[in-house]
Design brief:
This protein is mainly β. It is built from one helix and 52 strands. A hairpin with a 2-residue loop joins strand 8 and strand 9.
Length: 610
């Protein structure tokens, strides 16, 4: 196993995630641009996804799938088409034609751990193939979650990905990636980035341009800190205007990028920083987050620059996600949720932002699906967000069942926090999957926030009514609306939830962020906060509802003292916690056993409040 695979904590099968997977170059066979193999799952399920990248539907009657053996073949039935820009998934029980008779896909083909998938025309011409692999794809040992997929859809090389059957691919980022390139500088330079939560040793890795004789070996003892950058500006070759930069770990191609026939005006970098595709940047930022031309400019953070860590020692698990604040006659509480085990914490919050376990909550409690009530070993919900309504009931947002990580399932679960049980079985579940945009399994709802009707009536725009929100229109719903944020696309959606488990979409808001990981209704300022993670530099948006379909949107950079990490939780304190006009504001970062919870301050409330 290579040094980088160890650093990313992914098993040997994940070596397939490298762009060097293909054993046969794409130029070695004729390609039909109307259909390509796009994603393959070889275990535990067997399925193959195809993609039509064109603007017209395409008839694939008689097209034939083979694995690595020409004796294993299955053809599409007559009349089968793949729509323009759409995906088509062939599963184990899909019916096609074998030797002139109807047959399931798994009758002739069982996709193995050492195999490949090929596609032939009815005339027997090879038009696409994955190349051979060894070992089922897996992510941290989880084969259910992993596939091999093209990065980007339809055109990229096959790499390790999260399972997204019938939807756009969601590829696992390389352990170390090329992040920014200066090809017309004095000197030229290349920036590498470490997107993981641990420092990575990059000693001996090699950077090349499009000429294999031009190579630069990274010096022994070189490492990149977690979420950090390494700028290489002492290359002994020049980067041209029509060139490619490639990164190798031994013989394995880890990452590469090309930029066309001329130099870009500034630099060539990932937009958004670290996670995005390559594009021309707005300005060179060696050793810092990329500045992208289409990024929303943000004003300085309106609160304190200083941010401090609250959990120097581990207080939570490593998959921290959502936060919410509850103000009661007995005090103010901070609620927190973990997305790995569905655990929630109730914490006493002090005016200085410090927290401690609330009475009866020395240990966290676990939220469970109704279907898992009698199955304590079930993996449970992937709980990304948490909120508390006016009656004190707790709601969590789940983007999938951790027992089926390859399937997107956006749900809100209601639990009774006053139950003495350590496992809290959902009292009601609302499935929002079909009411939200179709996204990849791990790109669904990241946050949920309850907002009372009193703060919404006449202010939120009702998309269906094409008028300001009137709560009486939704007579069967619970008090208030529930806002959820979807990671893929960054949309915010307001739902009316009814006691029978039904839901109705009331409003859709675009906060102008590449992704949204956290929501918080700030009653002091009368705004809804939408917060992005390190995918867009920790920017946030203040949404001011005004009764129209164009709410006020103000963008802010993250606090100067807040590291640019995977902050997925955000919550503001009520005015009652204000001291000298300042009140706490909390952030919660995914991927850390300690130093996950941080606190700063934000203006609001009467000076001297407690």
């Amino acid at each position: 196993m290579s040094r980088l695979q160890r650093g990313f904590a992914i098993t040997a099968a994940c070596a397939l995630g490298a762009a060097g997977l293909l054993s046969v170059p794409t130029a070695a066979f004729a390609a039909d641009p109307a259909i390509v193999i796009n994603e393959v799952d070889s275990g535990p399920a067997d399925w193959v996804e195809f993609y039509n990248p064109t603007s017209e539907a395409f008839d694939i009657s008689g097209y034939e799938i083979r694995d690595n053996s020409d004796d294993h073949r299955w053809a599409f039935s007559a009349g089968t088409t793949i729509a323009a820009g759409e995906f088509l998934v062939v599963e184990a029980d899909s019916i096609g034609v074998v030797d002139g008779a109807p047959a399931r896909f798994d009758a002739p083909i069982g996709i193995g751990s050492a195999d490949e998938i090929r596609l032939f025309t009815p005339a027997g011409e090879l038009i696409d193939r994955t190349g051979a692999w060894e070992g089922h794809a897996n992510i941290n040992g989880d084969e259910i979650a992993a596939t091999l997929a093209r990065c980007l859809d339809g055109v990229g090389d096959f790499a390790l990905a999260y399972a997204t059957p019938g939807a756009a691919n969601n590829c696992v980022p390389p352990m170390v990636a090329i992040n920014e390139v200066e090809s017309d500088g004095d000197p030229d330079w290349i920036e590498l980035v470490n997107p993981t939560t641990e420092a990575l040793d990059v000693s001996g890795m090699v950077v090349k341009d499009d000429d294999d004789t031009h190579e630069y070996a990274i010096a022994d003892g070189t490492s990149i800190p977690a979420h950090g950058y390494l700028v290489i500006d002492d290359l002994d070759f020049g980067i041209g205007k029509d060139d490619t930069v490639r990164l190798f770990d031994g013989d394995q191609l880890v990452d590469s990028t090309s930029w066309g026939t001329t130099h870009v005006a500034a630099t060539w970098g990932r937009c958004p920083d670290i996670t995005g595709s390559f594009a021309a940047t707005a300005e060179a930022t060696p050793g810092a987050a990329n500045s992208c031309e289409d990024e929303v400019a943000g004003a300085p953070w309106p609160g304190s620059a200083d941010v401090r860590v609250l959990d120097e020692a581990p207080m939570f698990l490593e998959d921290s996600s959502g936060l919410d604040v509850q103000e009661t006659a007995d005090g103010t509480f901070l609620w927190a949720v973990d997305n790995g085990e569905g655990r929630i914490w109730k914490l006493d919050a002090s005016a200085d932002g410090a927290v401690s376990p609330a009475d009866g909550w020395a240990e966290s409690k676990r939220v469970r699906f109704q279907k898992d009530a009698n199955t304590p070993d079930a993996a449970g919900p992937d709980t990304e967000g948490i909120t508390v309504d006016g009656a004190g009931m707790v709601y969590v947002a789940s983007e999938r069942d951790n027992s089926e990580k390859g399937v997107n399932q956006n749900k809100i679960l209601q639990v009774d926090p006053n139950s003495s049980a350590s496992d809290l079985i959902a009292l009601t579940e609302w499935d929002l999957t079909n009411l939200l945009p179709a996204v990849g399994a791990n790109l669904g709802i990241e946050a949920v926030e309850w907002v009372p009707d009193a703060a919404l009536t006449g202010k939120l725009f009702d998309d269906e009514a094409q008028a300001a929100y009137d709560s009486s229109v939704y007579a069967e719903k619970t008090d208030g609306l529930f806002f959820v944020a979807v990671e893929d696309g960054g949309g915010v959606y307001a739902f009316a939830l009814s006691a029978d488990g039904s839901a109705e979409l009331v409003s859709t808001i675009d906060p102008g962020l590449a992704g949204v990981m956290a929501l918080d209704y700030d009653a002091v300022l009368g705004v809804l906060w939408a917060v992005c993670d390190d995918g867009c530099g920790g920017k946030s948006a203040q949404i001011t509802l005004n009764g129209t379909d164009a709410p006020g949107i103000a963008h802010f950079a993250r606090a100067a003292g807040l590291p640019d990490i995977n902050n997925e939780g955000f919550a503001t304190a009520p005015a009652s916690m204000s001291v000298d006009g300042q009140r706490p504001v909390w952030w919660f970062a995914d991927g850390y056993a300690a130093e996950a919870l941080r606190v700063g301050t934000l203006a609001g409330g009467e000076a001297g409040g407690a």
